[in-house]
Design a protein that fits this description.
heterotrimer; A alpha/beta; B alpha+beta; C alpha+beta; A: alpha/beta; Amidase signature (AS) enzymes; 8-stranded mixed beta sheet; 38% helix; B: alpha+beta; Histone, subunit A; 9% strand
Chain lengths: 486, 96, 481
């Protein structure tokens, strides 16, 4: 079997068993990137030399009898994670010249686990987008249909893994930015509980919603990677000081007797019927495995999109103020005074969607509007959170669709921000409440993948992964590869 | 909420963003639509509800020991700076 | 008819907390380093970095809150104050807004007429300092040094309770004393560790509502505070009496011209858009923690002064002077302790001769060339009659110059007091003999000449004769037989 058809876990085992070296694996994926990236635009930076160095080091470690499950396994980082000595662009002209002097905690931990860095993946600018069309580096194409979007904002990571240019990749999820692209490209994408994965070195979009995670081929791979990146980090005040379970060893927990909540609000108007059918079929698989399906209602949930589009822009408007052309990043030519330096560096350095969100956020925080918009949204956020809390007193997990439709065409929604925003209608709730959530592939509609979303209570990553894994033992949707990339 | 050009110009100034005359109408339209969209929040009954600033309500701020462990990396950190002189970040003259 | 104006002043004091590292990063806070060498990734606002709160800064804020009898909040929240300025790297300052760490304190000040007045402290909150903009020698540019960025500040906001520049100074000095007693701020005003903004307005005396106020920024000496307020009051009264009205604005004091002027740069559309900082969690302080901080508080200046009056019998004034700084009080108590009493004598010497030398040489009491131990050595010789107070002044000066102890100087210079009454009597006899005319005059009723004879005896003994004995002998012998 060709190396790129193997999962990250399989590659790790093969390298440790001496079936192939990490360097061979790295070269194989670098070749695939070389041949395929022009078509997909999944990578902003390919770190070929670094990959080979990492791989040789991993091989030496294996030889010395060291190393673990991920030693020698190649991966790609979303270009939102700071990587020392390597360009970190966040998909923006603003950071098109930015070489981070430090590594993000996620990057540091995966390097310490012996992984091999293939490169940095394309993304919506500053993670603001659901289609990867807002990147300064151009749109990413969906390997299932290159005229369609891969979703966003972790679209580069999704396309890279879906096309097997990398066996696994990191992502970040503020309103669905891991789960939605995972759904649209047939991957398993996990966003852990807020505070599980350190945000240190992850360029902030909306600090109270951002969470790092993984785009993988299966729940098993996702568990392996999540285990490596999760855990307390004293450099992030919002990082939770709690032990990290060995996710990969807890995947086989049975779903028999599990109470599965079906959120009524997720199956209403706006859900593409074929997508709904695929999700219903998946629910039947759970029923056949002995899970108890309970329908319930989260009445405040329909307000999650408007809530998000107040909270996230508010935080982003402040988070992005540091990009001012003074200490790093893009600076305009010949500023005539300080105001000119600021307004032109920022006006020229940020793209249209980022500017739109900064202005939305500036507006909702400004004097006279704070109460009506920002404070109101924070209160509604609490209502949504209370809905989830109540739900988890009745059920163990919540299941539903990840997205209302399969991947849409490039350019189809760029003209109307609201239509684009509504793509995240099912994913945003988990961010507002800080819940662990995952998307797993559960079917194809006209040759395009559809995602099943699993949402758990705080810190129940193990359960969420096990629920997905149980499904993946019964089905093979997660093994489907875009025909052009097999 | 329908914004005027003047509103958007004011927001852009507050956010220190140069918006060109050609771009302005587009932002007036899209920002107005976004604000209109989020106004459905006003329909929610939130009488006594506390605002939620953070997803993990029980977590509290951790305190760091007062140890100055950082050392000088000015040269490395200033490699990204557009303009530096004598160790200072340089900007156009600031008039107070 | 002339209107009587009443001045209303509130101060916002910024005290840099004396932590070793910054409030949200582990960079050192030492003053005077080369530009930007103490600015790490967090201080520079690099993409992806996050703040982590320094526990010592919190403890210091709590010390202050407890010392002014305020409420230390069980739960307080950090907020972002958003504005663009090149010395503010993130484009926002992390501060506290709706829920500060300290609320509702008071301090007492003593007015010129000796009366006490209580000044309210609305709140004190933690925040980070900004960097510095340098304009010299860079032509058309400004240089930014971010070493100071992220230094912890306690912003202490008073009620508008002060009615004159003198009261404002008294209040500011009181806070200055307090923060140094608490060892939470070095109080160095030249280095900017202790500075204030003054909110000044005037109103007709007897009116209830406040006039429109102006905020005078960045006053870093007591003298500037006084001058700036006085200038500002005159300016506002002149405008109002000329039929004008005050514009609420931020003003800057120019010490070269002794005037305040409008800071237009701060006026353009300021809307700080405060909101809770999502990178930091609520600061929760447990009762037990607060009580431990309370238990660690030193004796505070007011308590100490009260004890000096009550136990030591000092005047309020002396007690006030001796407790004005923790160092002075420690020095005083050190000398008193070594002597086992003599409270008034010690007070006089510290407030008199010693402070004269300190002032002359521009030294703080902590830098005194005569430490408490040495001074007690000198005063002991007054108490045990080895030397007179007059000789002691001479010895003190020699101690100051030479660094030697009192006894070494007394012995080397042979200054030991003559207490042998036989010896003194011989000198008295000699003096009477060599001044027959004065003796005759005295005996014929010129009582004033008594002092002349005292002087002659002291002169003849080089000042060493015990003055009490001299007096007694002269009283007995001068009137004659």
């Amino acid at each position: 079997m060709s190396l790129h058809l193997k999962s990250a876990a399989e590659l790790g085992r093969g390298i440790r068993a001496g079936e192939y070296s990490s360097e061979e694996v790295a070269r194989h994926f670098l070749d695939r990137i070389d041949q395929g990236n022009d078509r997909l635009n999944a990578f902003v930076t390919v770190t070929a030399e670094r990959a080979l160095e990492d791989a040789r080091r991993a091989d030496a470690a294996i030889k010395a009898g060291e190393g673990g499950a991920l030693t020698g396994v190649p991966l790609a980082h979303k270009d939102i994670f700071c990587t020392s000595k390597i360009l970190t662009t966040c998909g923006s002209k603003m950071l098109s010249n930015f070489v981070s002097p430090y590594d993000a905690t996620v990057v540091e931990r995966l390097a310490a686990a012996g992984t091999v860095l293939l490169g940095k993946t394309n993304m919506d600018e500053f993670a603001m987008g659901s289609s990867n069309e807002t990147s300064f580096y151009g749109p990413v194409r969906n390997p299932w249909d290159e005229n369609r979007v891969p979703g966003g904002s972790s679209g580069g990571s999704a396309a890279a893994v879906a096309a097997r240019l990398a066996p696994v990749a990191t992502g970040t999820d503020t309103g669905g930015s891991i789960r939605q692209p995972a759904a649209l490209t047939g991957l398993t994408g996990v966003k852990p509980t807020y505070g599980r994965v350190s945000r240190y070195g992850m360029i902030a979009f909306a600090s109270s919603l951002d969470q790092g995670g993984v785009l993988a081929q299966s729940a098993e791979d996702a568990a392996l990677l999540l285990e490596a990146i999760a855990g307390f980090d004293p450099r992030d005040s919002t990082s939770v000081d709690a032990p990290v379970p060995a996710y990969a060893t807890q995947l086989d927990r049975p779903v028999k007797g599990l109470k599965v909540g079906i959120i009524r609000e997720f199956f209403g108007e706006g859900l593409d019927p074929a997508t709904g059918d695929a999700v219903q079929a998946a629910l039947e698989v759970y029923r056949s495995l002995g899970a108890e399906l309970v329908e319930l209602s989260l009445p405040a949930l329909p307000l999650s999109v408007p809530t998000y589009y107040v909270v996230a822009p508010a935080e982003c408007s402040s988070n992005l103020s540091r990009f001012d052309g003074v200490r790093f990043g893009y600076r305009c030519e010949d500023p005539k005074d300080l105001l000119d330096l600021y307004t032109r560096s920022r006006g020229e350095g940020f793209g249209a969607e980022v500017k739109r969100r900064i202005m939305t956020g500036t507006y909702v925080l400004s004097a006279g509007y704070y109460d009506a918009y920002y404070l109101k949204a924070q209160k509604v956020r609490n209502l949504i959170n209370a809905d989830f809390k109540r739900a988890f007193t009745e059920v163990d997990v919540l299941l539903g669709p990840t997205c209302p439709t399969p991947a849409f065409g490039i350019g189809a929604k760029v003209d109307d921000p609201i239509t684009m925003y509504l793509n995240d209608i099912y994913t945003i709730g988990a961010n507002l409440a800080g819940l662990p959530a995952l998307s797993a592939p559960c079917g194809l509609v006209d040759g395009l993948p559809v995602g099943l979303q699993v949402i758990g209570p705080h810190f129940a990553e193990s359960r969420v992964l096990a629920v997905a894994h149980a499904y993946q033992r019964e089905t093979d949707w997660h093994r489907r590869i875009p025909p052009a990339w097999a | 909420m329908t914004l005027t050009r003047r509103d958007v110009e004011n927001i852009a100034l507050l956010a220190r963003l140069r918006i060109t005359d050609e771009e302005l109408p587009g932002y007036v339209g899209s920002l107005s639509r976004i604000l209109e969209f989020v106004e459905q929040l006003s329909s929610a009954e939130t009488g006594e509800v506390e605002p939620m600033a953070h997803p993990l309500e029980d977590q509290v701020q951790r305190l760091r020991p007062d140890e100055p462990t950082e050392t000088d990396h000015r040269e490395l950190y200033q490699r990204n700076a557009p303009a530096v002189e004598a160790g200072l970040y340089i900007v156009p003259k600031v008039i107070e | 008819m002339t209107i009587e104006w009443e001045v209303v002043i509130g101060l916002e004091i910024h005290a840099q907390l004396a932590t070793r590292s910054k409030i949200f990063s582990a960079s050192p806070t030492a003053f005077g380093a080369a530009p930007n060498v103490q600015a790490n990734l967090v201080d520079l606002g690099y993409p992806g970095v996050l703040p982590v709160l320094n526990g010592e800064a919190v403890r210091m804020a709590a010390r202050f809150g407890l010392a002014v009898g305020g409420k230390v909040a069980r739960r307080s929240v950090f907020a972002r104050k958003n504005y663009f300025y090149p010395d503010l790297p993130k484009g926002y300052q992390i501060s506290q807004y709706e829920l500060p760490v300290v609320e509702d304190g008071t301090v007492d000040i003593v007015l010129d007429d000796g009366l006490r007045k209580t000044i309210g402290i609305t709140r004190a909150h933690l925040e980070e300092d900004a960097g510095k903009s340098l304009h010299e020698g860079l032509g058309a540019h400004t240089g930014i040094d971010l070493n100071r960025a992220g230094t912890p500040l306690l912003e202490i906001v008073s009620e508008p309770d002060m009615r004159s520049a003198r009261e404002a100074i008294a209040y500011m000095k009181k806070i200055h004393t307090l923060v140094r007693y608490l060892e939470i701020c070095d109080g160095n005003m030249q280095e900017g560790s202790f500075r204030c903004d003054a909110n000044v307005s005037v109103r007709h005396k007897g009116k209830h509502e406040y006039g429109t106020r102006c905020e005078i920024k960045n006053l870093n000496s007591f003298r500037y505070v006084e001058k700036a307020i006085n200038y500002e009051v005159t300016r506002q009264v002149d405008i109002l009496e000329g039929g004008g009205s005050i514009v609420q604005e931020t003003r800057l004091f120019d010490p070269d011209r002794n005037e305040t002027r409008s800071m237009r740069s701060k006026e353009e559309a300021n809307d700080y858009r405060y909101f809770p900082d999502p990178d930091l969690l609520p600061l929760v302080l447990e009762d037990g923690w607060i009580e431990r901080v309370r238990a660690s508080l030193p004796e505070l200046p007011d308590e100490k002064a009260g004890r000096f009056v009550g136990e030591f019998g000092l005047s309020e004034y002396d007690a006030g002077v001796l407790t004005a700084s923790r160092e002075t009080a420690a020095y005083y108590e050190g000398v008193v302790g070594a002597l086992g009493g003599e409270h008034k004598l010690v007070a006089n010497w510290i407030m008199g001769d010693l402070s004269g030398f300190l002032n002359r040489d521009g030294l703080e009491i902590g830098q005194s060339r005569i430490d408490a131990e040495r001074l007690s050595g000198l005063l002991r010789r007054i108490v045990d009659d080895t030397i007179s107070g007059k000789i002691a002044k001479e010895v003190l000066e020699a101690m100051w110059e030479s660094g030697l102890g009192a006894d070494e100087i007394i012995d080397a210079k042979g200054l030991r007091q003559i207490t042998d009454s036989g010896a003194i009597e011989r000198v008295v006899a000699e003096v009477m003999e060599s001044n027959p005319r004065q003796l005759a005059d005295f005996r014929s009723g010129k009582d004033k000449l008594f002092g002349f004879f005292v002087g002659q005896v002291m002169k003849a003994t080089g000042g060493k004769a015990n003055p009490a004995q001299v007096n007694e002998l002269l009283k007995r012998l001068l009137p004659g037989g």
